[in-house]
Specification:
Helix content is 29%, strand content 42%. The protein is built from 4 helices and 7 strands. It has helices at 12-19, 25-28, 107-113, 115-135; strands at residues 2-8, 32-36, 46-51, 57-65, 69-76, 79-90, 93-103. Strands 1-7-6-5-4-3-2 form a 7-stranded antiparallel β-sheet. A hairpin with a 2-residue loop joins strand 6 and strand 7 (93-103). The longest helix is centred in the last third of the chain and has 21 residues, at 115-135. The protein is globular and about 40 Å long.
Amino acid sequence: MQRRISRTTATPAEVYALWVDPAVWPTWDPEVASVEFTGAVKLGARGILTPSSGPRSGFIITDLEPERVLTNSGRLPGAHLDFIHEVSPIPSGSELTVTVRTRGPLSGLWGLILKRAMSSAASSSAEGAVAFLESRE
């Protein structure tokens, strides 16, 4: 599991609005080249993400709590790869926590194989969102 915590002056609603718009993920996350997603973000909704490096892969929205949590998950052989985005209010704005983890029977193996990539993805997602939100003010 890899985790990155960042802070922004943006409100939790502004952070959450950025996360629930997959079409704009490539504009603020340098590790995302493109996203194919139609319709509203809701539990069970599916899309396809093409990373800046690596193969395209499908994802599904597996957890959704308005203005608090968005989790999207992809499949690996014998495991799942979860991207957990959490936001909470702080006096100066919001604290974002992005956690990338593997789960399932082969999660330990995948965690070792993808450790560096998972760390980079957590940092890219948290820091990219903050930089984007701060640049709009």
